[in-house]
Specification:
A hairpin with a 4-residue loop joins strand 4 (about 95-105) and strand 5 (about 110-115). This protein folds into two domains: about 1-30; about 35-195, Immunoglobulin-like. The protein has helices at about 5-25, 65-70, 130-140, and strands spanning about 40-45, 50-60, 75-85, 95-105, 110-115, 125, 140-145, 155-165, 185, 190-195. By secondary structure, the chain is of the alpha+beta class. This is DUF4390 domain-containing protein.
């Protein structure tokens, strides 16, 4: 058989597999978990020099997402955090904008999770327990939002934050069926915290 025929058969097999999986996903019951995820425990505080933020995501690991991660598919959470100075007659002035990512990947051979957080110098944390890995993925603690030099005493400020699960990265031949997997996406609402400095 010619190399061209081998490649054509291989591609046809991948498409067939993708269509079969897509067909199975169409008949499976769809349960949407996106509305369950929310930001909680949002705390704004400061040190002598910096404005700090603490928060966590609740409901970010419904069973389908947890099972997919445990099968070795990496997942990434993105956190969007903005700091505004509130103004009465003008639009609010954006002072700082931060986007963070947390990525989790399970190693089946070593039976351990690797969590990488962009704001934590991207140094990987290796953890055996999935519960501990979930906690690292879901929490931001002591994040510097802005220098206090950027804030004015007595002014009103607002922090707006949300979290989103980026689309799961599936093997190449399953990308044909990604549009069926929106049930694995979540995006929280924007949460706001108002404060006076």
């Amino acid at each position: 058989m010619s190399p061209f025929a081998n490649n054509a058969l291989r591609e046809a097999g991948k498409r067939c597999l993708a269509w079969m999986i897509g067909g199975l996903l169409l008949v499976m019951p769809v349960v949407v978990h996106a509305q369950d995820a929310k930001l909680t425990n949002i705390i704004v505080t400061n040190t002598r020099d910096d404005l700090l933020l603490y928060l966590s995501v609740k409901g970010a690991f419904p069973p389908k997402i947890a099972k997919t991660i445990e099968s070795g598919v990496p997942a990434t959470f993105s956190f969007y955090i903005n700091l505004y100075r509130k103004r009465t007659l003008w639009p609010d002035a954006k002072i700082a904008e931060t986007t963070l990512t947390h990525t989790i990947k399970y190693d089946n051979l070593r039976q351990e999770h690797q969590v990488t957080r962009s704001w934590d110098h991207n140094s990987p944390h290796t953890i055996k327990s999935f519960a501990e890995a979930q906690k690292l993925m879901s929490e931001i603690d002591s994040l510097t939002i802005a220098s206090l030099d950027q804030l004015e005493k007595g002014e009103r400020y607002q922090i707006r934050a949300k979290a989103k699960l980026d689309r799961l990265t599936l093997p190449f031949y399953l990308h044909y069926v990604l549009f069926f997997m929106s049930l694995w996406d979540f995006e929280t609402d924007w949460y706001t915290v108002d404060f006076i400095y």
